[in-house]
Design a protein that fits this description.
By secondary structure, this protein is an alpha/beta fold. It is built from ten helices and seven strands. The site of one manganese (II) ion has 4 residues, from loops.
């Protein structure tokens, strides 16, 4: 790569990246290899694979990335319990083979299975004829999530749509809902650090918190070791992005940016470009690498 072609006239980088991407190892529809090929088609210089709770896709993405000349950042997206809600913590540059880290992921998966079994029993008690085998076949290679419950209920005619299934049965407070136990944000940050990674608060505007509450959250997590904030994201308004950038700056946190691409599972969001105009400069990755060295 010629260094000079990285810069536009104003000094802005033309190299674009995406630091929030899901493969079919979690709930995306493209395999890690297909993601790399698609990233190449979209002219991305790098992307982070941040599947929910699993690192299974990373090796394949790294191998294909090397072949295609696309930089792959090994990542993860963890759910964490914050007060009465679930928030998401992204990990970047994690040692995805770290045995301690893998043990934590195994606990998360075991707990998900327990929760799924309980939800299945509740649905059976409500009179719905669904089985674990059917759920497994709906989920395919994915870990079974409530989205698969929704799909199965719809397929079997027990709900008009997946949204309907959530509204009637699967959302918090509804008859078949069972809460999944997850780690605290502090624990997630700690595990990511143990695995030599950087911990970043994902999409803070999606938690139904006021500005003041988001600032409180950032302050608390900063004290617990948070490294960065996802300040560029497919679903933000310009105003939201500006606020998050200024809060990141205030707390000396670096910023990341990502589309949250899920392939056909979120059709309106494309890799790298989000809803069409997302642009995440490669420089963000360079800033992260500087922090990594500290
Ligand atoms: P879980 O991690 O098993 O609790 O399930 C989370 C999954 O359910 C994610 O894929 C969400 O996108 C999906 N989900 C959550 N709420 C809804 C909803 N109201 N409608 C459709 N999908 C939802
Ligand atoms: Mn997802
Ligand atoms: Mn998320
Ligand atoms: Mn995500």
């Amino acid at each position: 790569m010629i260094k000079a072609d990285r810069f536009l006239k104003g000094g802005y980088s033309m190299k674009c990246i995406d630091l929030h991407v899901h493969s079919s190892s979690s709930d995306g529809t493209l395999s890690p290899r297909e993601l790399v090929l698609y990233a190449k088609e979209k002219n991305l210089a790098a992307f982070a694979l941040t599947d929910h709770d699993v690192v299974d896709g990373i090796e394949e993405a790294l191998a294909e990335g090397q072949k295609q000349g696309i930089e792959i950042v090994p990542g993860i997206e963890l759910a964490a319990q914050y007060q009465d809600r679930e928030i998401h913590i992204l990990g970047f540059f994690i040692d995805y083979k770290d045995p301690y880290f893998l043990e934590r992921l195994q606990w998360i998966q075991k707990e998900r299975k327990r929760r799924n079994q309980k939800m299945l029993e509740k649905l059976n008690d409500l009179g719905f004829d669904i089985t674990l085998e059917e759920l497994k076949s709906v989920a395919g290679k994915d870990l079974i999530s409530r989205a698969h419950f929704g799909k199965l209920l719809q397929e079997k005619g027990y709900a008009a749509s997946i949204t309907d299934a959530f509204q009637l049965y699967l959302s918090p407070g509804k008859a078949a809902y069972v809460q999944r136990e997850v780690y605290s944000p502090k624990e997630c940050i700690h595990f990511i650090h143990e695995a030599k990674g950087l911990a970043v608060l994902a999409h803070p505007t999606l938690y139904d918190l006021s500005d003041e509450e988001i600032k409180d959250l950032i302050k608390i997590l900063k004290a617990e070791g948070l490294d960065g904030i996802e300040a560029i994201y497919s679903l933000y308004t310009n105003e939201e992005e500006a606020k998050l950038r200024s809060w990141a700056h205030h707390y000396n946190l670096f910023i990341t940016g990502g589309s949250d691409f899920h392939g056909k599972n979120k059709r309106q969001i494309d890799l790298g470009t989000g809803r069409g105009n997302l642009k995440i400069p490669y420089e963000l990755l360079e800033e992260m690498k500087k922090r990594l060295k500290k």
